[in-house]
Amino acid sequence: MKKILVIEDDKNIRENIRLLLQLKEYEVFEAGNAEKGIEMALNVNPDVIISDIMLPGNDGYYIKQILDEHEKIMKIPFIFLSAKSSSADVRKGMNLGADDYITKPFKSKELLEAIAIRINRFDQVRGTNKSVYKRKLSYKDKILVQSGKNPVFINISSIVYITAKREYSIIITDDERKILIRKLLKDWEQELPSSDFLRIHRSHIVNLNFIKTIFKSDHRNYQLNLKSSNSFISISQRYAVRIKKIMGI
User: What is the domain extent for residue 212?
Assistant: First the structure.
């Protein structure tokens, strides 16, 4: 799932963009000012950054200049949004290295097409197919996810298990938080370190480091008892054997 960072101080515009992008199955992160936008860009490492120019305090031009100082961020596609439509404003944005400049008001189709084009080009440049590119996370990583309207930091090592809920997933952490985000389980499966996380059936991924016991619940099924959350998850005999082999029990 591609990640889009939207930096816009107008709450209504920001929310409309978020809803539009979520309908197209993008994972959306939001910021209302330059400082928060820069912080989120560095932590999220999005696939596209969309920023308004006129922001409280530092403006969108400032964001672009600061992010260009960071090697891992500077090449990410950057799209300016603005009510300013003069040729001088457009030229200034493009001279800073922006990939596109969209004037307000804009049509949904215009924004979606601009995003799709930039993602495709960026994927071609980095030599990966956009449908299979996934950044592999480390067990020591900290990630920033968007839960509803709130950004939440999560240590990968604190995730006890993840359960699927249609196009959403629920992350259960070792401090008993339940965090709902719009992300498919298959995307988690590709991103999480396989040495520590295992998908045990279509609706659960578990952190192997939190498995307390495995016991037989009936003649065909087993149960996992997980530490911290004290949760019990049913698994098949095939996965029980696999987990025991991995854990040496």
Answer: 142-247
